[in-house]
Amino acid sequence: MAQCAYCKTETELYEARTPVCLHCANLSPQKRAIRCKLYRDMSRAVERADAANEAFAAIASSIPSGAPHPDGVQRIHNVARELTEARDAMTKAHNRLTDFLNTGIVPDDLKAH
User: Could you tell me the residue range of the domain that residue 80 belongs to?
Assistant: First the structure.
């Protein structure tokens, strides 16, 4: 059985050769666009957090003695701040997507004006 292209639940329904569950098939085009935007935002936030984590790990591992030189301290602060901001953005994106999927809450910035 195929998985819905949007929510990954099992389905036998296809729409334009794309597997889609009944719930997702019944969404309006506007709701589908919102869901796609939220998934895209979540994916970008995860990529940013992964990159920040790798940068932090690279800097941390480049300090063999555990005592960085003076500008090394600032580099560590900068990369740690970016990691924190990236993780916060990922959490926000996750919460927005979860709220939409579970309750239908559309974030204010995505509501039609």
Answer: 29-110
In the block, which residue shows the tokens 């301290």? 73
Residue 40 lies in a domain: yes
Domain assignment of residue 79, yes or no: yes
Counting the structural domains of the chain, the total is 1
> 1 with 12: CB under 8 angstroms?
yes
Confidence of residue 89 (pLDDT cuts 50, 70, 90): very high
| Res 111 pLDDT > 80 | yes
Q: Report yes or no: 2 and 84 within 8 Å, Cβ to Cβ.
A: no
Closest CA to 49 of 105, 110, 94: 94
For residue 46, tell me if it sits in a domain. Answer: yes
Q: Is residue 89 part of a domain?
A: yes
Quick: pLDDT tens for 15-68.
888 898 888 888 888 888 898 899 999 999 999 999 999 999 988 887 766 665
Calculate the alpha carbon distances from 69 to 56, 59, 60 in Å: 16, 12, 12
The pTM assigned to this predicted structure is 0.77
